Amino acid sequence: MKKHILLTGATGTIGKETLKQLCSQSDYEISVMCRATSKNKKTLQPYLNQIKLIHIDLSNHKEMEKLEGEFDAAIHLAAVIPPLADEQPELTHKVNFTGTKNLIERLEIISPDCFFMFSSSIAVYGDRLNTPDISVKDTLPEHEDDIYAQTKLETEPIIMNSKLEWTIFRLTAIMGVKNHKMTGLMFHMPLSTPMEICMPEDTARAFTNGIEKRAELKNKVFNLAGGPSCRTTYKEFLGINFRINGLGDVDFPPKTFAEKNFHCGHYVDGDDLENITHFRKHSLEDYTRLNEEAVSGIQKFFASLLKRPIKYFMRQQSLPLKAFKTKDKELMERFFN
């Protein structure tokens, strides 16, 4: 008998890869829950003959009553992420916290034997610039300036204290092929920050492979990252992307980048999840190669001609630089030592 899998967040970066992998296997019946938007319909169009599409806004408690059926596993990826999370904190809390709570409560009623798989974030560990080696045993700080981290931190206990069996993966920086935009948020991370990325395809594989590893994963938290071959620093990582896109060096004025109060680091216990789900297939070299292949020569050429005005426009979006120039005491304390 086929296992019935519920997937949320199927139109996001990781969700699309997860759906693709689930649909490539013949032993799963897949239900995708999402809002009825034109963007979602377009993204899911290629899979409509392989999935059951359920149009429900999970942040709406009343709408959740429409969710019916028994599920063997639920992969919950739906979330509001930065920079939108910072711009719309009420929406972020409504989706990330209330939405997850609504889903948990509904599954407890209709499918109490469901295995609940949740994507949390490395953001819950806070600023680890001076202590970059991270373990799931580490104490989690409060997050006054990071609404996204707040919602993940508030949501994890809801899952742990539910009647369902569960697992939580705290995702590192997920970096794919041209899936990350260079917004003002890029200046919030100190350049010296150690990083350990993971590509969306590998991240999705941890979830899809994890369905069959319920006994090893249940009621445990894991750190998910690409491993030693995916480690770098933020300055080096930006340098890779700048060169790939024809923008030259990462040569911004002093104080353009924050000096504290962001997240990321190295997962010293990341092998724990790899040893169970065997999800890692890509390295930082693979990331670089795949992104190089995705950028046309013409695009790179014109970007190189316009790199000075492009960088000027980019640094105008730097909140740390604005804080430094205006001597805003509150922001200065947030961003600088």
What is the gist of this entry?
By secondary structure, the protein is of the alpha/beta class.
- Could you say what the CATH architecture of the domain at 3-180 and 198-228 is? 3-Layer(aba) Sandwich
State the strand order across the main sheet. Answer: 3-2-1-4-5-7-9
Secondary-structure element order, as H and E?
EHEHEEHHEEHEEHHEEHEHHHHHH
Q: How many strand segments?
A: 11
Biggest pleated sheet: 7 strands, parallel
Low-confidence segments, given as residue ranges, are: none
Helix content: 40-55%
Structural category is alpha/beta
Taking Cα atoms only, what radius of gyration do you get, to the nearest Å?
Answer: 20 Å
Instruction: Estimate the mean pLDDT confidence.
Output: 95
Distance between termini? 59 Å
Shape: globular
CATH superfamily of the domain at 3-180 and 198-228: NAD(P)-binding Rossmann-like Domain
CATH class of the domain at 3-180 and 198-228: Alpha Beta
CATH fold-type name of the domain at 3-180 and 198-228: Rossmann fold
How large is the count of helical segments? 14
**Which strand-content bin applies to the residues?**
15-25%
